[in-house]
Amino acid sequence: MTQVYLKKKVSRRIENGHPWVFANEVEKIDGPVAGGDIIDLVTHDGKFIGRGYANPKSQILIRLLTRKKNEQITDDFFLQKINAAWKYRQKLGYTENCRLVFGEADFLPALIIDKFNDYFVLQTLSLGMDLWKSAIVNALETIFQPKGIYERNDVPVRELEGLTQVKGFLSAPFDTQVLIHENGLKFMVDVENGQKTGYFLDQQDNRRAIRHIVKDADVLGAFTYTGTFEIHAAHYGAKSVLGLDISASAVEQANRNAALNGFGDKCVFQAVNAFDVLKQWSKEGRQYDVVMLDPPAFTKSRENIMKAVTGYKEINLRGMKLVRPGGFLVTTSCTNLIQPELFLEIIEIAAKDAKRILRQVVYQTQASDHPIIWGQENTHYLKFLIVQVL
Ligand code: SAH
Asked: What domains appear along the chain, each with residue ranges and CATH number?
Protein backbone atom coordinates (compact mmCIF):
# COMPACT_ATOMS: atom_id res chain seq x y z
CA MET A 1 0.00 0.00 0.00
CA THR A 2 1.22 3.50 -0.80
CA GLN A 3 2.62 5.35 2.20
CA VAL A 4 2.22 9.08 2.63
CA TYR A 5 4.84 10.66 4.91
CA LEU A 6 3.88 13.72 6.91
CA LYS A 7 6.39 16.50 7.51
CA LYS A 8 8.39 16.21 10.70
CA LYS A 9 6.31 18.80 12.47
CA VAL A 10 2.86 17.25 12.38
CA SER A 11 0.08 19.79 12.69
CA ARG A 12 -1.71 19.78 16.01
CA ARG A 13 -4.95 19.35 14.08
CA ILE A 14 -3.93 15.91 12.81
CA GLU A 15 -2.40 14.93 16.16
CA ASN A 16 -5.66 15.81 17.90
CA GLY A 17 -7.69 13.54 15.70
CA HIS A 18 -8.77 15.71 12.76
CA PRO A 19 -9.05 13.48 9.68
CA TRP A 20 -7.94 15.97 6.99
CA VAL A 21 -4.44 16.18 5.56
CA PHE A 22 -3.58 19.02 3.19
CA ALA A 23 -1.02 18.60 0.43
CA ASN A 24 1.39 21.11 2.04
CA GLU A 25 1.53 18.98 5.20
CA VAL A 26 3.04 16.06 3.31
CA GLU A 27 6.79 15.45 3.04
CA LYS A 28 6.83 12.65 0.44
CA ILE A 29 4.71 9.94 -1.09
CA ASP A 30 6.07 6.45 -1.45
CA GLY A 31 4.11 4.72 -4.21
CA PRO A 32 1.42 5.65 -6.74
CA VAL A 33 -1.64 7.68 -5.72
CA ALA A 34 -4.71 7.79 -7.92
CA GLY A 35 -7.93 9.55 -6.94
CA GLY A 36 -9.78 7.56 -4.31
CA ASP A 37 -6.92 5.17 -3.46
CA ILE A 38 -6.66 3.92 0.09
CA ILE A 39 -3.26 4.90 1.52
CA ASP A 40 -1.41 4.70 4.82
CA LEU A 41 -0.43 7.94 6.51
CA VAL A 42 2.83 7.74 8.46
CA THR A 43 5.08 10.10 10.41
CA HIS A 44 8.32 11.38 8.86
CA ASP A 45 10.07 8.34 10.33
CA GLY A 46 7.51 5.84 9.14
CA LYS A 47 5.24 5.33 12.18
CA PHE A 48 1.65 4.50 11.32
CA ILE A 49 -0.86 7.33 11.93
CA GLY A 50 -3.93 6.25 10.04
CA ARG A 51 -5.50 4.93 6.87
CA GLY A 52 -7.74 6.84 4.53
CA TYR A 53 -8.54 7.82 0.97
CA ALA A 54 -6.58 10.22 -1.18
CA ASN A 55 -7.49 12.63 -3.94
CA PRO A 56 -4.58 14.44 -5.58
CA LYS A 57 -7.10 16.73 -7.33
CA SER A 58 -8.46 18.07 -4.05
CA GLN A 59 -6.92 20.59 -1.66
CA ILE A 60 -7.60 18.02 1.01
CA LEU A 61 -5.18 15.36 -0.16
CA ILE A 62 -6.22 12.74 2.39
CA ARG A 63 -9.18 12.09 4.62
CA LEU A 64 -8.54 9.47 7.27
CA LEU A 65 -11.06 6.69 7.86
CA THR A 66 -9.31 4.90 10.70
CA ARG A 67 -6.38 5.22 13.07
CA LYS A 68 -6.31 1.49 13.79
CA LYS A 69 -3.45 -0.22 12.02
CA ASN A 70 -5.20 -3.55 11.60
CA GLU A 71 -8.54 -2.12 10.41
CA GLN A 72 -8.98 -2.67 6.67
CA ILE A 73 -11.17 -0.44 4.49
CA THR A 74 -13.65 -2.86 2.98
CA ASP A 75 -17.41 -3.02 2.39
CA ASP A 76 -17.72 -4.46 5.88
CA PHE A 77 -15.95 -1.40 7.35
CA PHE A 78 -18.80 0.79 6.06
CA LEU A 79 -21.43 -1.62 7.38
CA GLN A 80 -19.83 -1.51 10.84
CA LYS A 81 -19.49 2.29 10.86
CA ILE A 82 -23.06 2.94 9.71
CA ASN A 83 -24.32 0.41 12.23
CA ALA A 84 -22.39 2.22 14.98
CA ALA A 85 -23.84 5.57 13.86
CA TRP A 86 -27.37 4.11 14.06
CA LYS A 87 -26.74 2.54 17.48
CA TYR A 88 -25.56 5.94 18.74
CA ARG A 89 -28.72 7.68 17.49
CA GLN A 90 -30.93 4.96 18.96
CA LYS A 91 -29.18 5.39 22.31
CA LEU A 92 -30.07 9.09 22.18
CA GLY A 93 -33.72 8.29 21.53
CA TYR A 94 -34.01 8.71 17.78
CA THR A 95 -36.43 6.33 16.10
CA GLU A 96 -38.08 7.65 12.96
CA ASN A 97 -35.97 10.50 11.57
CA CYS A 98 -32.40 11.55 12.12
CA ARG A 99 -29.19 12.47 10.46
CA LEU A 100 -27.85 8.95 10.50
CA VAL A 101 -24.34 9.89 9.42
CA PHE A 102 -22.85 13.35 9.92
CA GLY A 103 -19.59 13.03 8.03
CA GLU A 104 -16.47 13.68 10.08
CA ALA A 105 -18.46 13.55 13.33
CA ASP A 106 -19.22 9.89 12.58
CA PHE A 107 -15.69 9.20 11.34
CA LEU A 108 -16.97 8.86 7.77
CA PRO A 109 -15.56 12.03 6.18
CA ALA A 110 -17.71 13.65 3.48
CA LEU A 111 -20.64 11.25 3.92
CA ILE A 112 -24.09 12.53 4.87
CA ILE A 113 -27.07 10.22 5.33
CA ASP A 114 -30.46 11.46 6.46
CA LYS A 115 -33.11 9.00 7.56
CA PHE A 116 -36.66 10.09 6.87
CA ASN A 117 -38.87 7.35 8.22
CA ASP A 118 -38.24 4.35 5.91
CA TYR A 119 -36.42 6.45 3.31
CA PHE A 120 -32.78 7.50 3.13
CA VAL A 121 -31.10 10.41 1.40
CA LEU A 122 -27.39 10.35 0.92
CA GLN A 123 -24.61 12.66 -0.16
CA THR A 124 -21.06 11.56 -0.95
CA LEU A 125 -19.17 14.83 -1.10
CA SER A 126 -15.66 13.60 -1.91
CA LEU A 127 -14.26 11.30 -4.57
CA GLY A 128 -12.89 8.87 -1.98
CA MET A 129 -16.32 8.46 -0.38
CA ASP A 130 -18.19 8.46 -3.69
CA LEU A 131 -16.34 5.30 -4.75
CA TRP A 132 -17.84 3.44 -1.79
CA LYS A 133 -21.42 4.37 -2.66
CA SER A 134 -22.54 0.85 -3.47
CA ALA A 135 -21.04 -0.47 -0.20
CA ILE A 136 -22.94 2.27 1.66
CA VAL A 137 -26.20 1.46 -0.11
CA ASN A 138 -25.73 -2.24 0.66
CA ALA A 139 -25.10 -1.39 4.32
CA LEU A 140 -28.36 0.61 4.47
CA GLU A 141 -30.22 -2.29 2.89
CA THR A 142 -28.74 -4.76 5.37
CA ILE A 143 -29.48 -2.65 8.46
CA PHE A 144 -32.84 -1.08 7.57
CA GLN A 145 -34.46 -2.81 4.57
CA PRO A 146 -35.47 0.71 3.45
CA LYS A 147 -38.45 1.57 1.25
CA GLY A 148 -36.18 3.83 -0.78
CA ILE A 149 -32.77 5.44 -1.08
CA TYR A 150 -32.13 8.69 -2.92
CA GLU A 151 -28.89 10.41 -3.86
CA ARG A 152 -28.72 14.21 -3.49
CA ASN A 153 -25.30 14.78 -4.90
CA ASP A 154 -26.46 17.92 -6.69
CA VAL A 155 -24.08 20.09 -4.69
CA PRO A 156 -21.31 22.34 -6.07
CA VAL A 157 -18.77 21.28 -3.42
CA ARG A 158 -18.34 18.00 -5.31
CA GLU A 159 -16.69 19.89 -8.15
CA LEU A 160 -13.72 20.69 -5.88
CA GLU A 161 -13.16 16.93 -5.87
CA GLY A 162 -13.41 16.56 -9.64
CA LEU A 163 -16.89 15.04 -9.31
CA THR A 164 -20.01 15.97 -11.24
CA GLN A 165 -23.34 16.90 -9.69
CA VAL A 166 -25.93 14.11 -9.81
CA LYS A 167 -29.17 13.12 -8.18
CA GLY A 168 -31.45 10.13 -8.50
CA PHE A 169 -32.65 6.84 -7.09
CA LEU A 170 -30.21 4.38 -5.54
CA SER A 171 -33.06 1.93 -5.01
CA ALA A 172 -36.18 1.10 -6.97
CA PRO A 173 -38.02 4.37 -7.73
CA PHE A 174 -40.51 5.58 -5.10
CA ASP A 175 -42.81 8.54 -4.43
CA THR A 176 -40.29 11.20 -3.38
CA GLN A 177 -42.77 13.07 -1.16
CA VAL A 178 -42.08 11.36 2.15
CA LEU A 179 -44.21 11.78 5.27
CA ILE A 180 -42.40 12.27 8.57
CA HIS A 181 -43.50 13.04 12.13
CA GLU A 182 -41.79 15.56 14.38
CA ASN A 183 -42.88 16.73 17.81
CA GLY A 184 -46.36 15.32 17.16
CA LEU A 185 -46.74 17.10 13.81
CA LYS A 186 -46.65 15.82 10.25
CA PHE A 187 -44.44 17.12 7.49
CA MET A 188 -44.00 16.17 3.86
CA VAL A 189 -40.35 16.03 2.82
CA ASP A 190 -39.55 16.42 -0.85
CA VAL A 191 -36.38 14.35 -1.03
CA GLU A 192 -36.02 14.89 -4.77
CA ASN A 193 -36.44 18.64 -5.14
CA GLY A 194 -36.34 20.04 -1.60
CA GLN A 195 -33.36 22.03 -0.37
CA LYS A 196 -30.25 20.08 0.65
CA THR A 197 -31.56 16.60 1.55
CA GLY A 198 -35.15 17.89 1.70
CA TYR A 199 -35.56 18.80 5.37
CA PHE A 200 -33.58 20.51 8.14
CA LEU A 201 -33.38 17.88 10.86
CA ASP A 202 -30.78 19.91 12.77
CA GLN A 203 -33.44 22.28 14.16
CA GLN A 204 -35.77 19.63 15.56
CA ASP A 205 -35.05 20.37 19.24
CA ASN A 206 -35.02 24.10 18.55
CA ARG A 207 -38.51 23.97 17.05
CA ARG A 208 -39.68 22.55 20.36
CA ALA A 209 -37.90 25.34 22.24
CA ILE A 210 -40.45 27.93 21.07
CA ARG A 211 -43.42 26.23 22.68
CA HIS A 212 -44.01 28.58 25.64
CA ILE A 213 -43.21 31.91 24.05
CA VAL A 214 -45.59 31.55 21.08
CA LYS A 215 -48.74 30.90 23.09
CA ASP A 216 -51.43 33.48 22.14
CA ALA A 217 -48.79 35.37 20.14
CA ASP A 218 -48.79 37.05 16.76
CA VAL A 219 -45.84 35.31 15.14
CA LEU A 220 -43.74 36.32 12.15
CA GLY A 221 -41.29 33.77 10.75
CA ALA A 222 -38.81 34.70 8.05
CA PHE A 223 -36.90 32.12 5.98
CA THR A 224 -39.64 29.63 6.70
CA TYR A 225 -38.78 27.04 3.99
CA THR A 226 -41.50 24.37 4.36
CA GLY A 227 -43.05 26.09 7.37
CA THR A 228 -41.67 23.91 10.13
CA PHE A 229 -41.11 26.55 12.84
CA GLU A 230 -44.32 28.35 11.91
CA ILE A 231 -46.48 25.21 12.04
CA HIS A 232 -44.93 24.42 15.41
CA ALA A 233 -45.92 27.92 16.52
CA ALA A 234 -49.53 27.28 15.46
CA HIS A 235 -49.45 23.91 17.25
CA TYR A 236 -48.17 25.52 20.45
CA GLY A 237 -51.04 28.00 20.50
CA ALA A 238 -50.03 31.08 18.50
CA LYS A 239 -52.86 33.51 17.70
CA SER A 240 -51.66 34.24 14.17
CA VAL A 241 -48.73 32.99 12.11
CA LEU A 242 -47.15 34.55 9.05
CA GLY A 243 -44.22 32.83 7.31
CA LEU A 244 -42.00 34.31 4.59
CA ASP A 245 -39.72 32.65 2.07
CA ILE A 246 -38.26 33.78 -1.22
CA SER A 247 -38.94 30.39 -2.82
CA ALA A 248 -42.43 29.91 -4.27
CA SER A 249 -42.09 26.12 -4.15
CA ALA A 250 -41.09 26.26 -0.46
CA VAL A 251 -44.20 28.36 0.25
CA GLU A 252 -46.31 25.84 -1.64
CA GLN A 253 -44.91 23.01 0.48
CA ALA A 254 -45.39 25.10 3.65
CA ASN A 255 -49.08 25.54 2.78
CA ARG A 256 -49.38 21.82 2.16
CA ASN A 257 -47.76 21.08 5.53
CA ALA A 258 -50.00 23.56 7.36
CA ALA A 259 -53.11 21.95 5.84
CA LEU A 260 -51.81 18.49 6.74
CA ASN A 261 -51.81 19.52 10.41
CA GLY A 262 -55.15 21.35 10.33
CA PHE A 263 -53.56 24.83 10.43
CA GLY A 264 -54.41 25.79 6.85
CA ASP A 265 -56.33 28.82 8.11
CA LYS A 266 -54.10 29.92 10.94
CA CYS A 267 -50.82 29.85 8.99
CA VAL A 268 -50.30 32.24 6.12
CA PHE A 269 -47.21 32.01 3.93
CA GLN A 270 -45.92 34.58 1.45
CA ALA A 271 -43.24 34.27 -1.23
CA VAL A 272 -41.21 37.46 -0.71
CA ASN A 273 -37.66 38.62 -0.13
CA ALA A 274 -37.39 38.77 3.65
CA PHE A 275 -34.63 41.38 3.58
CA ASP A 276 -36.89 43.84 1.73
CA VAL A 277 -40.02 43.07 3.69
CA LEU A 278 -38.41 43.17 7.15
CA LYS A 279 -36.92 46.55 6.33
CA GLN A 280 -40.17 47.96 5.00
CA TRP A 281 -42.34 46.61 7.80
CA SER A 282 -40.00 47.81 10.53
CA LYS A 283 -40.12 51.29 8.99
CA GLU A 284 -43.92 51.10 8.93
CA GLY A 285 -43.88 50.22 12.64
CA ARG A 286 -45.49 46.79 12.39
CA GLN A 287 -45.28 44.81 15.62
CA TYR A 288 -45.29 41.11 16.47
CA ASP A 289 -45.06 39.22 19.75
CA VAL A 290 -42.53 36.79 18.30
CA VAL A 291 -40.22 37.17 15.32
CA MET A 292 -38.28 34.12 14.10
CA LEU A 293 -35.32 34.26 11.70
CA ASP A 294 -33.75 31.13 10.22
CA PRO A 295 -31.73 32.28 7.21
CA PRO A 296 -29.56 30.07 5.01
CA ALA A 297 -25.77 30.09 5.41
CA PHE A 298 -24.56 33.50 4.23
CA THR A 299 -21.06 32.40 3.25
CA LYS A 300 -18.91 29.34 2.85
CA SER A 301 -15.67 31.23 2.25
CA ARG A 302 -13.53 33.35 4.55
CA GLU A 303 -13.37 36.21 2.04
CA ASN A 304 -17.07 36.85 2.48
CA ILE A 305 -17.29 36.76 6.26
CA MET A 306 -17.76 40.52 6.57
CA LYS A 307 -20.66 40.36 4.12
CA ALA A 308 -22.23 37.61 6.20
CA VAL A 309 -21.76 39.64 9.39
CA THR A 310 -23.50 42.60 7.73
CA GLY A 311 -26.33 40.33 6.60
CA TYR A 312 -26.89 38.94 10.10
CA LYS A 313 -26.67 42.37 11.65
CA GLU A 314 -29.23 43.74 9.17
CA ILE A 315 -31.90 41.07 9.58
CA ASN A 316 -31.53 40.88 13.35
CA LEU A 317 -31.77 44.65 13.69
CA ARG A 318 -34.94 44.66 11.57
CA GLY A 319 -36.26 41.63 13.41
CA MET A 320 -35.79 43.24 16.83
CA LYS A 321 -37.54 46.41 15.73
CA LEU A 322 -40.54 44.32 14.73
CA VAL A 323 -40.81 42.81 18.23
CA ARG A 324 -43.26 44.42 20.62
CA PRO A 325 -41.54 45.43 23.92
CA GLY A 326 -41.48 42.27 26.03
CA GLY A 327 -41.84 40.02 23.01
CA PHE A 328 -39.29 37.52 21.74
CA LEU A 329 -36.75 37.18 18.95
CA VAL A 330 -35.84 33.68 17.82
CA THR A 331 -32.70 33.86 15.74
CA THR A 332 -30.31 31.35 14.23
CA SER A 333 -27.17 31.05 12.15
CA CYS A 334 -25.94 27.96 10.36
CA THR A 335 -22.89 29.67 8.85
CA ASN A 336 -19.94 27.51 9.80
CA LEU A 337 -17.42 30.33 9.70
CA ILE A 338 -19.43 32.54 12.05
CA GLN A 339 -18.38 31.08 15.38
CA PRO A 340 -20.78 31.32 18.36
CA GLU A 341 -18.96 34.26 20.02
CA LEU A 342 -19.12 36.27 16.81
CA PHE A 343 -22.80 35.49 16.31
CA LEU A 344 -23.68 36.66 19.82
CA GLU A 345 -21.58 39.77 19.31
CA ILE A 346 -23.51 40.60 16.13
CA ILE A 347 -26.80 40.25 18.00
CA GLU A 348 -25.46 42.50 20.75
CA ILE A 349 -24.48 45.19 18.25
CA ALA A 350 -27.89 44.95 16.56
CA ALA A 351 -29.58 45.40 19.96
CA LYS A 352 -27.50 48.51 20.67
CA ASP A 353 -28.48 49.99 17.32
CA ALA A 354 -32.12 49.13 17.89
CA LYS A 355 -31.81 50.59 21.43
CA ARG A 356 -33.26 47.46 22.96
CA ILE A 357 -32.23 45.40 25.98
CA LEU A 358 -32.04 41.64 25.49
CA ARG A 359 -32.79 39.01 28.07
CA GLN A 360 -31.52 35.57 27.08
CA VAL A 361 -34.07 32.76 27.23
CA VAL A 362 -32.44 29.88 25.37
CA TYR A 363 -29.09 29.44 23.71
CA GLN A 364 -28.33 26.11 22.09
CA THR A 365 -27.01 24.41 19.01
CA GLN A 366 -27.88 21.65 16.54
CA ALA A 367 -29.71 18.48 17.59
CA SER A 368 -27.54 15.64 18.88
CA ASP A 369 -27.91 13.56 15.71
CA HIS A 370 -25.46 16.14 14.30
CA PRO A 371 -22.72 15.46 16.85
CA ILE A 372 -20.06 18.04 17.63
CA ILE A 373 -16.55 16.67 17.87
CA TRP A 374 -14.50 18.78 20.23
CA GLY A 375 -11.49 20.23 18.45
CA GLN A 376 -13.24 20.09 15.06
CA GLU A 377 -14.87 23.49 14.83
CA ASN A 378 -16.57 22.74 11.53
CA THR A 379 -18.80 20.16 13.23
CA HIS A 380 -20.22 22.90 15.52
CA TYR A 381 -22.10 25.11 13.11
CA LEU A 382 -25.61 25.91 14.32
CA LYS A 383 -26.34 28.76 16.70
CA PHE A 384 -29.89 29.07 18.05
CA LEU A 385 -30.88 31.91 20.32
CA ILE A 386 -34.13 33.06 21.89
CA VAL A 387 -34.08 36.45 23.59
CA GLN A 388 -36.74 38.58 25.15
CA VAL A 389 -36.58 42.02 23.55
CA LEU A 390 -37.25 44.66 26.17
N1 SAH B 1 -36.65 27.35 8.94
C2 SAH B 1 -36.50 26.31 7.95
C3 SAH B 1 -35.17 26.32 7.22
C4 SAH B 1 -34.85 27.59 6.52
S5 SAH B 1 -33.64 27.38 5.28
C6 SAH B 1 -36.68 24.96 8.60
O7 SAH B 1 -36.51 24.83 9.81
O8 SAH B 1 -36.99 24.02 7.89
C9 SAH B 1 -33.49 28.99 4.67
C10 SAH B 1 -34.62 29.45 3.77
O11 SAH B 1 -34.39 30.82 3.47
C12 SAH B 1 -34.72 28.73 2.44
O13 SAH B 1 -36.01 28.16 2.34
C14 SAH B 1 -34.55 29.83 1.38
O15 SAH B 1 -35.46 29.69 0.28
C16 SAH B 1 -34.91 31.07 2.16
N17 SAH B 1 -34.34 32.33 1.70
C18 SAH B 1 -33.11 32.58 1.21
N19 SAH B 1 -32.96 33.90 0.94
C20 SAH B 1 -34.13 34.49 1.28
C21 SAH B 1 -34.61 35.83 1.24
N22 SAH B 1 -33.82 36.83 0.82
N23 SAH B 1 -35.86 36.07 1.67
C24 SAH B 1 -36.65 35.06 2.12
N25 SAH B 1 -36.26 33.79 2.16
C26 SAH B 1 -35.01 33.50 1.75
From this structure: 3-66 (2.30.130.10), 75-175 (3.30.750.80), 200-389 (3.40.50.150)
